[in-house]
Structure formats: C-alpha cells, structure tokens
Amino acid sequence: MANDLLKQSTRRHFLATSASFLAAPVVAQNTSNSATEPVYDPLRPPPEAEPPVKRNISAFRAKDWKPHFKNLRGGAILVDIDSRALHYWSEDEQTYRLFPSSVPLTADMTRRGRTRVTRKVDGPGWAPTPSMLKRNPEWPAYIPPGPDNPLGTHALYLSWKYYRIHGTHDTRKIGRKSSNGCIGLYNEHIAELFSMAKVGTQVLLI
After folding, report:
1. Which end of the chain is more exposed for a tag (fewer CB within 10 A), N or C?
2. pLDDT at 128 over 70
3. Backbone angles phi, psi at 120, to 5 degrees
C-alpha cells in the first residue's frame, strides 16, 4: 500500500512538473512600450489553486467596441484582464466572438494598453531567449510545434516584444491567473481567432 501511494505521489509530481512547462508565456516587467526582455520561467510549478470566490458571472458578457476603439479597421481584439475574457469584432461588424482566457499571475506581469497583431503562426515553435538560457542552461534551446509546445496550436504575435495571444495544451489554465504575461486561449478558440484576425488587427488590453 505504501509503495502504491509513493508511486502515485511520484507520478503526480512528474505530471505537475511536465504540465508547468507548457505554460511558458511571457512575463511583463513594466507597462512601458519597451523591448526589455521579460523573465521567463516555463518550468515553474503550476499555480496554486485560487481560493474559493464568488464569481461575477455578469462580468463575462458581451461588450460594445465603441468605448474602446475609434473604428474597427482591420478588426479589433479587446482583452479584459479582470473578466479573463477576450473579445473580437470583425471590421464589417458582422462577427463578434467572446472567449474565456488565461491572464497573468500577478499585476507586475500584466501589461495594459494598445498594440496590434504583427505576425500569425500556425503551429508555432518556442525558443527560450538568450538570457533564459544563460540563467537556465539545462532548458531546451527549442521546442518544435506539437503537444509539448507552450504556445499551443496557433499564436498571434503582438507589437510588444515577447507578448502573444496563443493557445495552450494545458486547459486548466483558462479562466485563471496562470500565465507569465501572455493571453492564453483554448486551442479550438485560438484557431477560430487565428482564422479571423489579420496582421494589423488592433489589440487593446484593459
């Protein structure tokens, strides 16, 4: 019996450590529009369970784009950090989508303001930055597209260096404070957003 419990504990530890590697989004150190390299920590343990709270269900609801954007040229993406939700409007106003998202773990990792989509990648690979490898030489230099990739199946790169809206294979993270700076979506949702958003689509994080 003791051996069985030990094996189960060891397996749980391995799975938790492996799952945490999938959460390697980016850390924001400040809110200025700089190219300062954030501190990644893809091998950190999964976040502790959040304490029970009364959910504000009304916060996860449709929004109007007009208070946030002057126009919908190129389409628009609004990320509401507090509601843990991503909103998308097409340029012709015929399409509106609302997706649950993961958000940064802490306020100092959170960046708010205006940016835009600068690149779209179907099947992104992930590579640690030079400073990451310097701090953690045991980390892999590159993770190819696939089930172990921290960016999921698709990624929208933003004009803020190291920031992305991307998928995740670890579905536990969606709807939680669980990222190191990026905005994460279920893989099926990022695939849908990826098909609608364009290079140049406006992005606002509030």
Report:
1. N
2. yes
3. -125, 130
Q: Is the pLDDT of residue 206 over 90?
A: yes
- Classify residue 104 as exposed, middle or buried by CB count within 10 Å of its CB (0-12, 13-18, 19+): buried
Following CA atoms 139, 17, 163, 76 in sequence, which dihedral angle do they give, to the nearest 10 degrees? 150
pLDDT for residue 96: 98
Residues with catalytic function: 166, 182
Question: At which residue do the structure tokens 């991307």 appear?
Answer: 166
pLDDT of residue 131: 66
**Which residues have CB under 8 Å from 198's CB, separation 6+?**
74, 75, 117, 120
The pLDDT of residue 41 = 45
Give Cβ neighbours of residue 113 (< 8 Å, ≥ 6 apart).
31, 33, 204, 205
Question: Mind listing the pLDDT tens digit for each residue in 141-173?
Answer: 899 999 989 899 999 999 998 899 999 999 999
